[in-house]
Amino acid sequence: MHVLIVGLGYVGLPTALAFLEAGCRVTGYDVSATRLAAIAKGQVDLSPLDHARLRFHRLETTADPAAIAAADAVVICVPTPVDEHHVPDLSALRAACGTVVAHAVPGQLVILTSTTYVGSTRDLLIDHLGGVDVVFSPERVDPGPGGRPLEHSPRVLGPASAKAGDRAEELLKRVAPSVHRVSSPEAAELCKLLENSFRAVNIALANEFADIAREVGVDPVEVIEAAATKPFGFMRFDPGPGVGGQCVPSDPYYLLWRLRRAAPTVLTAAMGAIAARPQAVVGRALEMLAAAGRDIRDAKVLIAGVSYKPGVADARETPAMPIIAALRRLGARAEFTDPLVEELVVGEEFLKRAPDPRTEPWDLVIVHTLGGDLGWLRPEQPVLDATYRLERPGDSRWEVP
């Protein structure tokens, strides 16, 4: 089986490596020469397992779309972000699907995995491809060193026809423990949006309960840990500074955009609360600085950890960006440190990470993402723990938002 992966980003590259591990011949296609060069050198953000696979296996890569015609199966794995107005950015998806439509040949199997609006598989592929079997099977990649390997996650499969479903199921079972078939591509598309909307709503609820706990003088972590002992009817979600990455900050907006004339109230409120969370962290930082008699103007504030989750060199949609931007607008000398992220573009500013956080007398440290050595933090150092996961030393100046 010759599988061609369209898009070699944080989803496409692990997908390609999983199919290689399963014994398939795999070709990776990407329009970015820079990305292909980084893959060839092994300079990519992957789990330890996938780094080992990249070293061991030979992954064919190409920037020539004509290679699509030679494959038995084509798997589309391109990013589907939203813009600054929370409107879906479909440019990469439309370009990728257009390229596949232009080069696909009868008898091929095409699998779309990118999260998107309900109806997009039909709009962008099925309606334009004759003699090609098309399915939608949403990706379930869990980035980071502690993430679940791709082969450990069941796959949902929404086929355009029974024959397409049979072919896709046979292929996907090579890289998944099981395949759950639904009746249509639209059902599978909505399944993916439900998965991440569920996370968004519960993260917003956890943040709200953290605020309630502080208002009534109770430790929010203690309350969450107590509730998590219930063996049924409760799933633990932790508060934080907001959400980042490709999925939770973006995916629900594909549903809200599709239903904009009758927007669901719970999801709309949750996404609004999530978008406002970084500013709430900034507000708490201002309170802590004021309580210490320190003016925000020229205050030295360090954001510790800026990736969207621990262990990944990925700062897409990270809440750290609006936090840093807001602090700098207010006049603070806000900097960041992160062992995996060397630089950030915040607004129109290009920021390099602080070379050694131990050498500066910070007025406040905001712990945004756990990762790396935080042993330089001392009990007397004012710390705002936006992760809610630091063990707070006794008689310290460490607080949560």
Tell me how many strands there are: 15
CATH hierarchy class name of the largest domain: Alpha Beta
By CATH, the topology of the largest domain is Rossmann fold
Full CATH superfamily name of the largest domain: NAD(P)-binding Rossmann-like Domain
Structural domain tally: 2
Name the CATH architecture of the largest domain: 3-Layer(aba) Sandwich
Strand content: 5-15%
Note poorly predicted spans.
none
Query: Separation of termini?
Result: 52 Å
Gross morphology: globular
Could you describe the largest sheet, including whether it forms a barrel?
Answer: 8 strands, mixed
**Side-by-side strand order of the widest sheet:** 3-2-1-4-5-6-7-8
Oligomer: single chain
SSE order = EHEHHEEHEHEEHEHHHHEHEEEEEE
User: Helical proportion?
Assistant: 25-40%
InterPro entries: 6-PGluconate_DH-like_C_sf, NAD(P)-bd_dom_sf, UDP-Glc/GDP-Man, UDP-Glc/GDP-Man_DH_C, UDP-Glc/GDP-Man_DH_C_sf, UDP-Glc/GDP-Man_DH_dimer, UDP-Glc/GDP-Man_DH_N, UDP_ManNAc/GlcNAc_DH
Keywords: NAD, Oxidoreductase
Protein name: Nucleotide sugar dehydrogenase
Pfam families: UDPG_MGDP_dh, UDPG_MGDP_dh_C, UDPG_MGDP_dh_N
